Each structure stands twice: as C-alpha cells, then as structure tokens.
Amino acid sequence: MKNDPIALDHLDGLVEAKAPAYAALSDLIWGMPELRFAEHRSVEAQIAQLEAEGFRVTRNVAGIPTAFVAEAGEGGPVIGFLGEFDALAGLSQEAGVAEKRPLEAGGNGHGCGHNLLGAGAMLAAVSARDALREAGMPGRVRYYGCPGEEGGSGKTFMAREGAFDDLDAAVTWHPGAFNAVMSVRNLANYQVYFRFKGKAAHAAGSPHLGRSALDAVELMNVGVNYLREHMPQEARVHYAITNSGGVSPNVVQAEAEVLYLVRAPRVAEARALLERVKDCAKGAAIMTGTSWSFEIDKACSELLQNRTLETALHGNFQALGAPAYDEADRRFAGEIRASLSAEDIASEVASFGADPALAEAGLHDGVLPFDGTPLVQAGSTDVGDVSQIVPTVQAWGACWAVGTPFHTWQAVAQGRSAHAHKGMAQAAKVMAATALDGFRDPELLARAKAELAQRRGGAAYACPIPPEVAAPPLRKRG
Amino acid sequence: MKNDPIALDHLDGLVEAKAPAYAALSDLIWGMPELRFAEHRSVEAQIAQLEAEGFRVTRNVAGIPTAFVAEAGEGGPVIGFLGEFDALAGLSQEAGVAEKRPLEAGGNGHGCGHNLLGAGAMLAAVSARDALREAGMPGRVRYYGCPGEEGGSGKTFMAREGAFDDLDAAVTWHPGAFNAVMSVRNLANYQVYFRFKGKAAHAAGSPHLGRSALDAVELMNVGVNYLREHMPQEARVHYAITNSGGVSPNVVQAEAEVLYLVRAPRVAEARALLERVKDCAKGAAIMTGTSWSFEIDKACSELLQNRTLETALHGNFQALGAPAYDEADRRFAGEIRASLSAEDIASEVASFGADPALAEAGLHDGVLPFDGTPLVQAGSTDVGDVSQIVPTVQAWGACWAVGTPFHTWQAVAQGRSAHAHKGMAQAAKVMAATALDGFRDPELLARAKAELAQRRGGAAYACPIPPEVAAPPLRKRG
Amino acid sequence: MKNDPIALDHLDGLVEAKAPAYAALSDLIWGMPELRFAEHRSVEAQIAQLEAEGFRVTRNVAGIPTAFVAEAGEGGPVIGFLGEFDALAGLSQEAGVAEKRPLEAGGNGHGCGHNLLGAGAMLAAVSARDALREAGMPGRVRYYGCPGEEGGSGKTFMAREGAFDDLDAAVTWHPGAFNAVMSVRNLANYQVYFRFKGKAAHAAGSPHLGRSALDAVELMNVGVNYLREHMPQEARVHYAITNSGGVSPNVVQAEAEVLYLVRAPRVAEARALLERVKDCAKGAAIMTGTSWSFEIDKACSELLQNRTLETALHGNFQALGAPAYDEADRRFAGEIRASLSAEDIASEVASFGADPALAEAGLHDGVLPFDGTPLVQAGSTDVGDVSQIVPTVQAWGACWAVGTPFHTWQAVAQGRSAHAHKGMAQAAKVMAATALDGFRDPELLARAKAELAQRRGGAAYACPIPPEVAAPPLRKRG
Amino acid sequence: MKNDPIALDHLDGLVEAKAPAYAALSDLIWGMPELRFAEHRSVEAQIAQLEAEGFRVTRNVAGIPTAFVAEAGEGGPVIGFLGEFDALAGLSQEAGVAEKRPLEAGGNGHGCGHNLLGAGAMLAAVSARDALREAGMPGRVRYYGCPGEEGGSGKTFMAREGAFDDLDAAVTWHPGAFNAVMSVRNLANYQVYFRFKGKAAHAAGSPHLGRSALDAVELMNVGVNYLREHMPQEARVHYAITNSGGVSPNVVQAEAEVLYLVRAPRVAEARALLERVKDCAKGAAIMTGTSWSFEIDKACSELLQNRTLETALHGNFQALGAPAYDEADRRFAGEIRASLSAEDIASEVASFGADPALAEAGLHDGVLPFDGTPLVQAGSTDVGDVSQIVPTVQAWGACWAVGTPFHTWQAVAQGRSAHAHKGMAQAAKVMAATALDGFRDPELLARAKAELAQRRGGAAYACPIPPEVAAPPLRKRG
C-alpha cells in the first residue's frame, strides 16, 4: 500500500522533504538564544514559518506574550504538538567544536536543545497535517508554542487558562542521547519565594535594636532541614538564598529572601509539604521578630504516564529505527565524548535507564526497550500539567553523543550539528506517526483517555498555581 | 557612755552572750540538711528558739508551710532580719575534715552556709530586741524565716503576698570568706519550663507521621542562640533539657521539656526578653507541627542598692572589725585551702571584688573597703525582691577560708567550725548595730526610703511572678 | 503414603502431640519476663526442656551468658531454628483481658511475643528431630537460644563469633496477626553512642569560661539534620539525647550524650553513613571546644531474601493452612480489636503487605499470597546477620487479633491465649516441614546456598560490629 | 604677649587666613567622591596643595598607591596629622538641600565627611608649620594621607610597614555634630572571609552526591550563634553572606562565602575569638564534607586613650570655643533636623555621650565636658593602630546639625555647607594648638609617651594583620 498517505514510509518521505527547512529554523533559533518568557524573536520566526505552512495562529495565549497556538485541519480529533524554545543563561558556546568556547562571555546558549525541540515539534505537526490532507482525513493538528520551560512553568500557566482543554492527545519530545519512549514518573513541584523584613542596626553598636532578616532565613532553613526527617522519603525540598541582605557584616540585615523548590510525587502532597515549609518561614519570623511573606513563583503537576500512547509511540519508533549517522557524525560525537569523564557518561546513561553497556556507544543506533514501566526521576517538568489534562506521550530523540549532560557547553556545541538535525527529524517522524495513529484509530484515543481518567481517579484537573499568581512576564515587581 | 545599751561595745557583749546558743542552733540545722521548701524540722527548731525568746510567731506566711515571721517589741519602726535555712542536694560531707568525705552517699549538705545564715540573722534579731528593751526604746524587730532560696525564690513568693510591705528596713547577710558590705548590682531573672507535645511514630518505618517534640526543643534552642546577638549584652539566657523525650532513638519523641533561665539587669527587661524567648518556643512549635506550653517556675527582681544603709553598715563593720581567729582556726583554714587550686582561690577572691593580694590570706582579718560603688554580678537572688519593697542592706561575714567556693564540700566541712561560728557572731553584731542605728535615727530610715523611692522612680513594686503561679510546695503536678 | 514420617499430616500429628508442653513453656516464660541479655530464668527453662528431649546443649555461646545452642541428630545437613525470649520494659499486663491492666506498675512484659517465638522454634526443632529419627534419616537439628533481640543485636554478636558458620539453613518465625512467608527487604543499622566532654561554668557569671557539651550535642544534631538532604533517600538516621548534662540551667553542661541509630539498605552504606554522622560529631566538638568519643553499641546487617527457601515454606504453609480457631478465640480477638482504632488496624494490616480488606478479619483464616517479591520495610533485625551467612527463611504465624500492634499491652494480653498457642503450633509445623524439605532434598539446600552466594556477590560475611566491641553483658562501664 | 606666634589668638588668625583655600579643597574632594583605595584624584589634589605649601611628599607609603606622607620643618619632635578622604557607595546627594536628592543614581558620596577630615587635618598641619616657622622653633609637622578608612583599615596596613614609628604624637579629628575631645574605648577587630567548596549535584535527582557549601556557611553561622553564649559579653561577632552559591535552588551549591567581623576589647582577645570562629568554619566543613579556607581582609587594634594629650586638647578647645554660626547656618541646620525623627536625634546625641538636653540644639555652640573618662563604643577604627604606636589624640568638630546620623544623605548634604567649613577650621585650630603644645613642651610629649607605655604594659606594637596579607589594592584575586 505504497500510496497510503499514513504509511510510515510515506510519512518518512514527507518529513524528510521538509526537514532541511526546520533544521534551518532550529539553527536560526540556536543563533539568537532568548531566556524564559523573552523568546520574542524565536516566536516570530516560528510563527512566520507556521503561517507560511497555512496554520492559523493565536498569539498571547494565557496572556503571555510569547505563548501561542497554531492550528491546521478541520473536524475530527485535535492533537497537539508541544514546542519549547527558551535558552539558558551563561551557556554561550560556539557550534561544532569540542572544546569550551563561548561566543559571548556570560551570554545565553541553547544548553537544553530547545531550538531543536520547538523546530522538531513543528516539523511533526506540519508533516502530520500534510499526511492528513493527502489522506483527506478529518482532524486538526496544533502546534503549541510554550515559553519559559526553564524554571518558568510556561505550560502550567497556559494550562490554568484552559489552553489544552479541548485536545484529544498531546505529543512531544526532548533531544537527548537516546531514541526511546520517554516514560517517566517524576515529582510535582512548587517554587516559592520567602521574604523577610527586619530592622537594620549597627551590628556592633546596637545589635539589640536590630531584627535580622538573614537570621530568619537561616532559621527557616534550619527548620526545614529538621523537617526532612518527617517528610515522605520521595519528597524533595531545596533552596537558594536569593538575597542575603547585603555584603556588609557591619549592619544587621533588614531584608533577605530565599527561594524554595518543594517537590513530592503528587501535587497534593507537594502542596501539603509547602504548607509545612511555610510554617518554617512563619516560625522563623516569630523567632526573630521579623515579618515574612511568600510569593508562589511557579508550580508543576507530576507527569501522568499514558501507557496506551507510549506503547503506540514505541511501536512507531521500533518500526522507524534510529537516525542514520555517518562517519562525520560519529567523529564529532567522539570528540565531544573525549571532553567528558567516564563517570559523567555512565551517570548520564543511567539517568535514561539505559543498559550501562551503551556508555560505550558514540551515538545511539537503536531504540531503547520499553515494557510499560516508567522510569522514576526526582525532577519535574511543566509537561506534567498537560499530561493531567489530556493523554500525553513523549519521545527521546538522539541528538547528542551518548553521555552528553544537559545544560552544558557540549550540548550547545552539538545544537546545530548534522547528527542533531537527524535526531530531530527522526523524532518528528515518530511523533507524527503516533498522532496519525490517533487520527486513524478513535479507539486508541478513547483508550488513552480512559487510562487518563482512571489514573486521575475521576478528579478534574486543578492547576497548582493559584489564580492570583500572574505569569512571570505579567508580574509587577515592587 | 559605757552603759548606753546601744553602744557597740555593749551590743558586742549582748551578742557574745547568746552566740553559743545560736551556734548550737546552726549546728543542729547543719546536721539535718533539708532541701528547698521541705525545711520542716529546721523551721520547727528556729520557731522553738524564737518563742523561747518571747517572739510572736506567724506560720504559713504566703501559704508556704516553711515560711514564717517572728516579731518582738512594740511601736516604733519595724526592721526585719532575713534568714535562710535550706540545704543543697548531693553535698553531704563530714564536718571538720579537709577532704571530701560524705556522711551519706548522695545526701544533702549545707553547701551555701544557710545554717549559719538563718541562725546568725536570728542572733542579730534577738540581740537588737534585747538592746531596744534595755534602752526602753520603741521599735519592732522581725525575723523572716525565708524558705527555698536555692532555686526556689521563696522571698519573691512571700513578697508577692505582702510579707515585707510594712517594714522600714531589711537587713541580712551571707556567709563567705570576707568581712564586707555586700553591695551588688545583679540581674533579675525568670525561670520557665517550656513543654512541647508532638506525635510518636516509628522513627525508621514512618517518620513522616511523627511530629518530634525533641526537634521543637532543639529548634527553640537554636532560635534562642540566634537571639543572643540581638539582646542587651548584660542579659543572660541559659537552659537545660529536662526531658529529652526518652532514650530510644527508634521512636519519634512525642514530648520534651526544656527549662530556661532568663536574666537581665532590670525585671522589666527580663520580662521583655522572656517574651522573645517565648516567641522562640512558639516558632519552634509551628515549625515542627507540635504544640507548646510554658510554666513560670520562679522569678527574682534585681537588687536595688541602698547606699544609705550600706554606708551605715560599713561604718559598724569598720568599728567592730573582723572576728578574732585563733591558731586552730587558721590551721584548719590552711588545710581547706590546700585542697583548692590557686586558680580557684584567685577566682573566688575576684568574685568578691577583693584585692587579689588577699588570695594569700588564710582567713580574712580585715574589712573590705567600700566607696559606694556596687559590684556587678551576673547572678540573681530573691533578696532582690525585698530590696525593691524596703531599704535593704546585706553583709558578707567571713566564715570560710579565703578561696572557699560556694556549693562545695569545703563549704560544708567548715559549716560547724569555730571560725564559722565567730564569723556568724560578728555578722550578727554588725547587722544588729545597723538596725539599732535605724531605730535610733529616724532620719537614717527616711533617707534610706528616699533613696529607694528615687531608685524606683516612684513606681510601686510589681512582683515578677504572676498571681496564678503557686509557690512550688503548693503546686499541683499533672 | 500415610506412614511417611515426613508427610505433612504425620508431621502435623508429631507437632500437635508436643504442642501442649511447649505452650506451657511459652506461658512460663511469659510469666517471668526478662529484659535483653538478662534472660537467665527463661534460658534455664528452655535448656531443661531441651535436655529432657535429648538435645546436647552448649552454653555461653559467643561468651554471652544467655546465648546457647542445643543440637540433636547425627550426620547429614545442619539446620538451625532461631529462638528469642527477651521481654520489654514497661509492658506488664494481665493475660486474657481486653483492657490495659498491668500486673506490676512499670514491670516488664512480652510485648513482642518472644515467649511464643522461642517455644515455637523449639517445638519445630524437636518435631523435626522426631521426624528425622522416625525416618532414620541423617541430619542435625539445632535450636539457637538467641538473647537480646530487642535493641541488643544478640544474633550479630553470635554471628561475629561464628555461631552460625556451619549451618546449611536457618529457619525462624515471628508471632503476628497473619500466616505468611516473612519475606522482607529491610535496613542494616548501626547504633552508636556519642559523648561530649566540655567544661562547667556558672552560666550567668562566667559563661565565657564554659564549654558546653550540650551545645555540642545540639550542633551535632543540627549537622545531621542538614546531612539528611545529602544521603540516599532510603537511609534513616534518628537519635535520642541520653544525657542532656543535667537539669540545672545555671551550669554550663560539662558532659552530654546522644544515641544514634543509622540505617541504610546495605551494611556498607550504613557504615559509610555512620562515618558522615561521626563527622558531624567531630565538627560539633571542634565548634564548641569540647572533646568527643563514640561507642558502637550494636549493629545489624540487612536481611538477604532467600526466595528458594521462601517458596518451599510458602508451599508448606499453603498445604497446612491457618490454625483452626474456635468461637472463644474469635470472641477474645474481637474484644481486643474493640480496643484499637480503625486507623491502627489499617496501618498494621498495611505493614504486613496484606490486602486492606483483611482489616475486617478478626483472626487470619488464610495464608497471605507470595510471589517472590519481598516487602520493603525501614526497620532492622539481627536475623539479618544470620541471613548473610546461611540461607534463612522466616514465617509469620497468626497469634494475635488482626490489627494488634507490636509492643502494646494488647500483644501481651494475648500472649497466653488459646489462639496464640494455636498460631505457635501451626508455625512450628510450617518451619519443621520446611527444614525436613531441606533434609530430604540436598538440591533444595544447594539452590538456597547458590542464591545466597549470588546475592552476596561472592563476598564473605563481615560482621558490622567491630571485634573490639564487647557484647553488652560483657561490657565494662566507666 | 600678642606677638607670641604660638598664642592661640595668633594661631586663630593663621588658620582663618588659609581656611578658605582648604574649604575649597574639601569641596573639590566632596565633588569627586572616590571609594576606598581608589582615591587617586583626591590624593593628587591634596598633594598639589601640600607641595604648594612646601611640604616634602612621599608617595606609595606601604606600597599603597593612595597612601602618602607630606612633611615640613626640621629637627625637633615629629607630630603627625592623620587625614582621610574616601567616600561611600550609594550616598550620592546634592549639597545644600534638606531632602534626599542623589546627583547620580547609585553614585558615591561623602557620607562620613572625609572630605572635611582630610582638608581639616591638612589645614592644621600647614598652620602648625606656619606657626613653628614664625616662631623659629624646631619641629617637624607631617600630614598622613590615609586611604581606605571605610572598611579598609588603611592605617593598619601603613602601621604594619612602620609609617608611624618615628612620630612623637599623632593628632586627628572627625566631623560630627559636637565640639569635643573624642576619647573613646572601642573594640579591636578582624574582618575575615570564609570560603567553602563542595560539589554540585542536581538537588532533586542526586542530592546525595552533592556536598553543599551553602550548608557549610549556614552551619558555621549556627555554630557561631551558639558560640555567642560562651564569649566575653563585650565581644561582637557579625557576618554577611557574600556568596550564597547561586540563585538556583535546583543545584546543590558548590561554593559559598561568608564575611565575618570579629571584635573584642583588646586585639589579643579578638585574635583568640577569631580562632574560635575559625573552629566553627572548620567544624562546618567537616560536617558537610566540604573544604574551607579563610582570608584575613583587614584588622584594627583597639584605641588606646591618651589622657595626657586629651587633657591638653580639651584645654585648647575650651579656650577656642565653638565656631561662630550665623542665622543662615542655623536655618539650614534646622531644615536638616526637620528630616530626622526625634528618636534618631536622641540616639545620635547619646552616641556622643552628650547631655540629652543638647538634642534641642540646632548646632552645637559649646564644647562637651571631659573628665578623663573615655566613652565606651562597640565600633572600631584604624586610628586604633596609630594609637598603639604613638600617643594619639582626636577631636570631634561640629560640622553637622545636632542629630545628623553618619552615613546618610543628610551628612552628604551638609558636606559643603558654611557651618561645615566653620567646624573644620575650628577643629584645625584645636589640633594645631595641641600640636604646638607638644612642640613647645617636651615634658608633655614625654608624659604622653609614658602613659602610652604604661597602657601597653611595655609590649611592642604587633600589627594584627599578618605580614602575608597584602593591602587590598595589592591583592591578587583568583
């Protein structure tokens, strides 16, 4: 059935035909790395491309200037592809070299591969639309332009405003070192600022008149460290002192701030734990005669696995296989790996749940096995909130040398490489194929939804970010 | 004017005549050491003697079974002599030997010389009454039987019930190693129990279900240690953990208790500091999800110096001089000193504000100089509350070898010695003489009262122990 | 094959014939509850019975006065039954009543059912020997009299001295509320005293001269609470302050002690974690100018599951089934359950990994399913060390009403009940049958040993308690 | 003796003649506020003026680019005038207005009046030289250009290199709100950086692999807060967290830094206390598995009072009296005072030890009394080190409205005012007169030196900053 528009080999051709354009788009975004919620140029580049492809674009989703949705097709189910495109601070790096070489001191860089992530998801969306159109099948394809994934929980703010409510399924991926279903059990989280206000005084002359906000931060932290014994072992609480109240020891610190990240397997548990952390702040304020306040910065729900869709995606990945790397790809990957320690590589391999023997591979030539068991990870992602609303499936696409850690110059250096482009295209095929399975098979979507409903126990989605917390770009700072 | 009944040499004779009887009473009390508020036999012995001397006795003062007042004389001013008679735990010791030799393992002992203190104050009271009677002068003499000085604040409970309100002056003394006016600026204090209740749980199996009262005690203590930076430097806060919640690490501690002693130069400052310490308890309870309560155990006001009376007492001490020690006294004192290090002796000498050269003396043959400047000491005494109500003066009487530390077996061992008896009699003379100065010279008492009023700035006495706190022997324990 | 001496129904008869005698022995030990390492009378009673049964007794095993081994039979494999018989403080309770009613205020009680444990293991040993003898089969049966399980790690001290080295298998059980294989993954542990010595000083007068040992304990604890963030999540560290340095806040505490229990999944991890806890002690001593020392009190290795023997035991349990309770048993169980909350019962049921629906059962009439997966528990037991040396299998025997918590008066009250006696006899049958499987089937023992070797990765047993640490009854205390 | 060149009224004329030039120099420096050790333009302006006056200038004293000495005269004693000229960050302010109005956002400003301090000391030096020259008396006058007083201890670095060793006396002043001898007992100090290095790790994914340098800082601080109980009450320890290890809670902080200021009445005590603080750092590093290092940033010795010179200076101040303020001066002072609360004013007045009634004064029209008793202050100054080497005397000169706090915009706003210029000239007269007393009266200098020798107990000056610590501008930063 060579002409079945949805046959994998046909789809492969559709994706490959457009892959160079999206590789170019990815490279463009790589070259103008923008931090969370400031991805204005990256968004414009994507929207231009999507409009050229005939997608209908809605800007300012959830009121966020860099959040948008692009849709194509008519009728039928609605399947969304989630794209990200924000960069990281301090990771400026020249492409294509295997040594640390910033383009701009202190500049930004795409250390998490979101240039590929967004462009790849777009390529999947466009290709799925192309296939649907050729097949004359109903169905709508959406691309979600999701800003601020890095410490911003952009999708959670979008979810709170209902942006994903009418989807039948969501599909996304992440660049990495392996080809695999990304089936993960992770942690919900809350990120919260705690601020204390005390009273300044000369620290030698009249310390008894001072009320130290830094003391309050320290005592809050001591209290939380005691709390660790009495919280569920899978939970995590960590913090950074974001304002220590000044660098002069001579003055009792009148204000100070600490940023907490509170995580637990389920969002309700994270919220309960946050209340206990707040009690530590309150207790510290009372102890020190200071006042305190808190500000929720962001939050994520835990990922809900969808084994139904994951099984479908895994089947497509097995059928499509790994990208076809060439000698040059392997040579550059080898050079990158030479910059990493064996421990780093082994640790990265383990974090994917991959066979330790794969640490020897330069680039991943296969597809990792999948038996329906999710990998347990202590991190968090705002894809979690999408997965609470709509059946969601994710892929890992091998874009980097095996062992490349996230958020490193090595990841940035490979961000425009030929092997990254190949990994992106392959992931786009797998995603598009899985979406097409859904368009073609209403039963699949129904089963995926039933699984979601069963996992949620019938409860409706409740966004972990309270309604009064504005998305970061909309916040007024005092 | 040899026959002037109030001439010092005549008074000297009066005191010496009765001194053997009171030395015997002191020895009797030494031999039946009773702890705070349990001084029943010591009280009976004193009352029997006072009734034999014709004093009118009121028992159960302030409702406390071992508090009493004995009065003699009619009309005129009322001057009170304050006596103490409680012993200390763990200080059982044979008399008259210069090595540690308990009479009873773990038994009590008069390590603070209160056997001498009470008997000496009685001897002063009786002798002053005798002199007044001979002179046919009006005036009432009182002996206050004050229990529970050691960690009990007996006088403060008595003061709260008005026991000292109608006095014109109060006189007392303390055995020590020197002859001197005891003019001291010390600290007011509050002693308070803090109790926490949490929830037990298996510390390994379900620590997340436990709420640790021991954590609360520790966090309260951490909070208070941070508070130290921000309190007046003369203040003191210290604590003991009186219930750590059990010795098994396997159980989350469901209850715990810590006993705080909070001191500051003035009682109002101590009270304000106590509020901040309470905030640390409250904050710790909130941090740990436990509940807390507190119980005031006792409190003392700071001593108010009365330079008027101190100057009078110093004059009498100079006129009367030191006791006349003999060779045997000096030999025993020398043996006691041989059991002490040079550092101990020097430290003790310094604590009296005495010339360091006096560390060489075996027994103090002179009277320490006094220029009206009080010695600053960081401790507390319940004489403080009397001094807030009525002009109060204190003497040190040399009863021990120079360098003898308080609360040691060495102090107990000297408690029935000839030199202690001599020191007690000499102190009784000085106290009686000072009281007689008052009876004879209304101007002196008026000036003393004016000084007190000036120091208090016109404020009435407010007892630091709240009305609802029962004296220890009257307390119900849950 | 009715006369097969090892047929289960024949074995059943052997056990039932002697069960009354061992129920009586259990009751005798229940009536003279002795604490860890002081089980002298309980040991004598057991030895008398074993000698009457013709066992050869070795006393003073590992030099511990209440540790002994009794052996019978000749040649063949050696299979050991592990018995315990120590009681708990503060759990004195009348038998057969469903309300808290101590026999002796503050007295001991068999709150963990070790009276049943020892007698039941003896009954199994004797019955297995009887069956072997009837069958004329070679094989040696041992009963291990293991003292001090409660906080004493008696078996670990015995293991260190080689007491289990020549065994082919070890079998034991524990009274509980269910009939089941006890297949558990637990934690290795170390219990360690930390002691600090500082310098006393008057806390108000000269605190700058004091060095507080209590400060050191508190700072060590703060350090350990910070350490929690950075240790594996399955590890556990908990502590009790066993000497707070005195109850007087007026003295800088010159000595203090804290008892730590450090646990981790594997003994090597526990040891590594203990080193970090010791660093906290060292750091605290340096911070406070105090000196520190530590004393290992006891330690246990983690349990090594032996699925081979567990499968055999489970088969026997399924074949033999639950004890046959009667109406009176069920009535008493019902009364006991009426003294417990639904939450307590549910929590106990969950701790056995049993179906929550079983919370409704008064007594357990079935056998819990077993699929080879161990239950994960955060506790520890000294059976762990035996399981590291020799293939070891454990059963739960239903002796208590469903929901009865361990270490409660309810457990003591049921310790002499008819249903406890029945549960003990049934467990004895299951244990004896499993041992007989081993005697009959050398392959089974070989597979069990191979499994052990595989789990140990070829490493020889290394006792977690260093050679210089004497067993508690042999220790000199300073 | 109208023509006595050293008569006060003649000296008054000499100073007044040159006062306008030095007021202009002060204004020039006010207008180019430079931070510690970066006072290059201010130094050039001063040197130009001093060279114009015929002084011999030595630059780069102690190797510090902005430290210099200017000398004039020949033979006789050598008396030095100490000048300062560094500004403060963040205190930019328009002159002559009574409201906060920065000239440059975040810019520097002369909030401590060092523009006046340096110019005034120069004016005194030049005038003393003029008087000596007129009188034909031998004697050398020096002006010390001392950089980096604000948190830099410039003089201590100069002292370490011997810059003050051959002086016979040192004289200086400070602008303030009162005319007075500045006789102070303050605290020696050490300012020390503590740095910790740990190991980064993902705070949720692998916290057990991380070693937190921030934990180490916090635990060090907890340890120091416990230490407070056990240090002399006059000592002070305070700190600022100068590197919290980053603002991301998601990463275990691999490095962190805290800056400590350790003070005590005597430099030896400060050094001993610093050792105990270092122990807290060491203990925290051990507890957390991090490494630590420290770097002494600066140190000051305590001021040694020189009552001999103070008495001489006080006599001159009484003879010369306060500056003659006019209506405009008082009006502006009144406007400044209107911007301050009564509490602020009262607190400032108290900090000078002045009569509280003077809080009502707009400008100080008298000279504060002096009875030889120093004011106790808990701060520190690098004049302390000069005072340890050579008899040193300081004056307060009334340049600001009564109640003006140091380091405020109000101080900057008055820095070029007419009343500040008058206060500066008056202080210059007092300083010059006192120096001339010394030149004229060798006995005075001898007595001053004898007093210093007696206070030092015969010990030679030992600089508190170790030889290996480079002055800040000479330091290499890693």
Automatic annotation (TrEMBL), chains A, B, C, D:
Keywords: Hydrolase. The keyword Hydrolase applies. GO terms for molecular function: dipeptidase activity; para-aminobenzoyl-glutamate hydrolase activity. Residues 185-282 form the Peptidase M20 dimerisation domain. Coiled coil: none annotated. GO terms for biological process: folic acid catabolic process. One of its GO terms (cellular component) is cytoplasm. NCBIfam families: amidohydrolases. This is Amidohydrolase.
